[in-house]
C-alpha cells in the first residue's frame, strides 16, 4: 500500500462528543504515532478542534456520516481543510475491541493509506437547495396524509362525493363540504346552486345529490375534518412559500432549468427539484451510467457462484428516484411530445410496465445529464426517427394480382375469384 496522507486525522463523531485521532506516519517505516483527544460538540469546542488540527499541521480529515451530527463539524472544517466523509460501513471496526478512541485511530489508520471510500458531497449552495426541496417533499407527504384522513371521514359519514366527482378536493366538492360542515339545516337546493356555479362536471346534479343524501356527520368527524382542512390549507401555503424560495435560489441556473423543462413530463419546478439532488456540475460523475447508478436506476449486483440472485434496482436515490418515476409517468401522457410514450410502449411489450417505467426514468436522467453538461435543449439524435418515422420503401405495393393471390391462399371461392379477375384485370 502507498502512503497518501502522512499526517491525517480520523474523527469519531457522536451527539455530544467528538474523538479525534491524529496519525503521523514515518514515510520510511510506515509506523504511525497517534495523538488522541476528545472534544464536545459545542460550537466553541468545535473551533478548538479546528485550531488543534491546524497546530498539528493536519489538513486532511476523515469522519463518519453519523446522522446529522457530522454537518456542523463538516461546515467548519471544510473551509480550509480537506475533509472526507465516509459511510460507517466502510470503517466498521472489529467487534470486541471497540471503543471511541480505537474507532478514531482505526479511521485515521485506514485514511492515511487512502483505502476509505469517500461519499459524494455537493457544494454549499446545492446542499441548501437540497435541504429546502426535501423539506417540501416532506410537507407534500403530510398534505397527502391529511387528504386521506379527510376522505376517510367522508366515507365514515356516508358522503360519497369521491364517486361522482373527478376531484374530491376540487372547487365544487370543497364548496359542498364547507356547506355541509357549517350548515345547521341541510338544503338540496343550496347544494344545487353550489354545483351549478362551478361550471361543467361529468356527473348529473341528481347523481351528486344522491351521493350526499342520508349522510350522518358525527361531531368527532366534523371536528376532525375541520382541523384537517385547516392543516391542509396551512401546508399548501407553506409549500407555495418553499417553491418561491427555491425559484429565487435557482436564478443563476435559469438557462439550465429552461432547457430541462423542455422535456416531456418535466416542469420548471421538477427541474429545480432534480437540480437540487444532482447539482449542476456533472464532472463529479464519471459518465451518465455512474449518475444512473448513483440515482438507483440500474440493477444492483447480487451474484454468487455465477448465479444472479436478484436484478432489482438498488435502494439509492431515496428522493431522486421517485421524482424521476413521477416525471416518467407524466411524460407518457404528453400529447405534444410523444417521444417517451412511444419508447415506453416498445419496452412494455417485452419487459412489462414496471421495468419500462424504470427504463424511461433512466433515459430521462441521462438526457438531463447531457443537457446540463452541454447547456443545450432536449433534442435526442433519434427524435425524428421515433416521433415522425418515414414510411419504408420496402413495403410491396398493393396490386390486383397480389389481392387475388392472397384470397386464393385463404381458400376463397374459385368462381368468385374468376369474376373479380375478369372485372378488374380488364380495366
Quick one: overall form?
flat
Mind telling me the C-alpha Rg? 32 Å
Order of strands, widest sheet: 3-2-1-4-5
- State the secondary-structure class: alpha/beta
Question: Helical segment tally?
Answer: 18
Summarize the structure.
Helices cover 53% and strands 9% of the residues. It has 427 residues and is of the alpha/beta class. The protein folds into 4 domains: 7-111, Ribonuclease H-like superfamily/Ribonuclease H (Nucleotidyltransferase, domain 5); 126-251; 254-386, no CATH class; 392-427, no CATH class.
How would you sum up this structure, described in words?
The chain has 427 residues and is α/β, with parallel strands linked by helices. The protein has four domains: 7-111, Nucleotidyltransferase, domain 5; 126-251; 254-386, no CATH class; 392-427, no CATH class. The chain contains 18 helices and seven strands. The protein has helices spanning 43-55, 70-77, 100-111, 124-156, 161-164, 171-182, 188-196, 205-210, 219-249, 254-260, 268-278, 288-294, 320-332, 339-351, 353-374, 383-387, 400-409, 414-425; strands spanning 7-13, 17-25, 32-40, 60-64, 82-86, 303-304, 307-308. Strands 3-2-1-4-5 form a five-stranded mixed β-sheet. A two-stranded antiparallel sheet has the order 6-7. Helix 2 (70-77) links the parallel strand 4 (60-64) and strand 5 (82-86). Helix 14 (339-351) runs antiparallel to helix 15 (353-374). The radius of gyration is 32 Å and the shape is flat. The termini are far apart. 24% of the residues are buried. The model has no long low-confidence stretch (mean pLDDT 88).
Amino acid at each position: 500500500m502507498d502512503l497518501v496522507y502522512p499526517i491525517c486525522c480520523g474523527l469519531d463523531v457522536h451527539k455530544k462528543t467528538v474523538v479525534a485521532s491524529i496519525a503521523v506516519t514515518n514515510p520510511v517505516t510506515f509506523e504511525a504515532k497517534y495523538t488522541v483527544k476528545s472534544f464536545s460538540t459545542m460550537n466553541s469546542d468545535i473551533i478548538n478542534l479546528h485550531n488543534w488540527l491546524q497546530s498539528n499541521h493536519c489538513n486532511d480529515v476523515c469522519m463518519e456520516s453519523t446522522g446529522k451530527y457530522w454537518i456542523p463539524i463538516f461546515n467548519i472544517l471544510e473551509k480550509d481543510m480537506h475533509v472526507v466523509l465516509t459511510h460507517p460501513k466502510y470503517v466498521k471496526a472489529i467487534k470486541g475491541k471497540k471503543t471511541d478512541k480505537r474507532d478514531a485511530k482505526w479511521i485515521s489508520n485506514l485514511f492515511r493509506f487512502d483505502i476509505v471510500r469517500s461519499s459524494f458531497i455537493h457544494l454549499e449552495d446545492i446542499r441548501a437547495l437540497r435541504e429546502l426541496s426535501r423539506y417540501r417533499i416532506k410537507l407534500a407527504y403530510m398534505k397527502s396524509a391529511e387528504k386521506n384522513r379527510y376522505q376517510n371521514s367522508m366515507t365514515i359519514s356516508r358522503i360519497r362525493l369521491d364517486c361522482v366527482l373527478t376531484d374530491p378536493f376540487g372547487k365544487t366538492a370543497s364548496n359542498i363540504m364547507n356547506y355541509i360542515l357549517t350548515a345547521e339545516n341541510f338544503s338540496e337546493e343550496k347544494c344545487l346552486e353550489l354545483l351549478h356555479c362551478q361550471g361543467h362536471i361529468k356527473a348529473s346534479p341528481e347523481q351528486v345529490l344522491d351521493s350526499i343524501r342520508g349522510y350522518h356527520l358525527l361531531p368527532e368527524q366534523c371536528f376532525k375534518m375541520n382541523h384537517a382542512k385547516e392543516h391542509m390549507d396551512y401546508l399548501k401555503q407553506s409549500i407555495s412559500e418553499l417553491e418561491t424560495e427555491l425559484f429565487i435560489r435557482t436564478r443563476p441556473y435559469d438557462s439550465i432549468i429552461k432547457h430541462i423543462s423542455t422535456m416531456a413530463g418535466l416542469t420548471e419546478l421538477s427541474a429545480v427539484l432534480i437540480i437540487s439532488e444532482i447539482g449542476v456540475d456533472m464532472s463529479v460523475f464519471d459518465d451518465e451510467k455512474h449518475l444512473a447508478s448513483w440515482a438507483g436506476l440500474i440493477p444492483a449486483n447480487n451474484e454468487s457462484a455465477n448465479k444472479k440472485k436478484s436484478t432489482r434496482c438498488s435502494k439509492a436515490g431515496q428522493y431522486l428516484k421517485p421524482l424521476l418515476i413521477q416525471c416518467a409517468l407524466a411524460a407518457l401522457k404528453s400529447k405534444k411530445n410523444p417521444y417517451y410514450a412511444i419508447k415506453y410502449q416498445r419496452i412494455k411489450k417485452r419487459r412489462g410496465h414496471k421495468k419500462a417505467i424504470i427504463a424511461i426514468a433512466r433515459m430521462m436522467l441521462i438526457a438531463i445529464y447531457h443537457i446540463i453538461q452541454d447547456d443545450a435543449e432536449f433534442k435526442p439524435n433519434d427524435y425524428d426517427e421515433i416521433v415522425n418515422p418515414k414510411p419504408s420503401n420496402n413495403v410491396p405495393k398493393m396490386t390486383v394480382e397480389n389481392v387475388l393471390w392472397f384470397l386464393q391462399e385463404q381458400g376463397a371461392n374459385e368462381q368468385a375469384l374468376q369474376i373479380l379477375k375478369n372485372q378488374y384485370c380488364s380495366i
